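Translate sequence into structure tokens.
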Amino acid sequence: ALCAALLPGAAPAAPPAVEVRLAYVGDAADTALSGARQGLDEANVQGRFLGQAYSLEPLTLEAALAPPERPWVALVAAVPPASLAALAAAHPDAAVLNVSAGDDTLRADCRNNLLHVLPAASMLAAAQAQWRQANPQSAARAQAWHPDFEKYAAAQLNIRYSKAHGQPMDDRAWAGWAAVKMVSDTVARTRSATAADVLAHLRDDLAFDGQKGSEMSFRPNGQLRQPLLLVEDGKIVGEAPVRGVAADDPDSLGGGECAK
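Result follows.
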């Protein structure tokens, strides 16, 4: 094999794939982890063409707070609010992607590296208020995702996820998938797998579809701008921002202000 490699005209060996190490912090039974694993599978399909190899390491909170031997490019976190703040402080150069907590106080703190993929409680409330303004008798609730959502290639994502994991995709599964997917899209676009570069792109230059038909980006407080679904009796009845009630602008759903 060595002789063949030295022969004139022999094709050079392909360079080793760039490692993109991600961490998942939270309960292993949480659907956020199965969503993140779905995102990982898709990232590696894309990565094979780009010389990138993705891995996802499930960690306990205690392990994630300890100094790592090698830094992670980003952390996907399904942990309580106080733990999110601790994770962000422990990994100041890496994006910590919140896929489970909707607390508005977390967003108001505006930690530079804490990014919220799941919608805030205020966003859900604003979507429901818009819907009820147009449909006063409705008791619809706002959600980030629904397993029957079909537009914008959402149907294909739902099928891939349910086949791979044997369950329907819910809000946290979508958030886990989206967190990994936006990181892999960032690495593919910037050709950088350093935590600081990925964080900077996510905060300032992200344009992520997420199978929702809208270019989503992060607000100054770290919240992902996104359209929401209105669901009543288990069925999708509408989308927010609600046409005729609010401007077609995701910033009409909840605030993006910082506490200071």
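Note: Confidence is low (pLDDT under 50) at residues 1-7.
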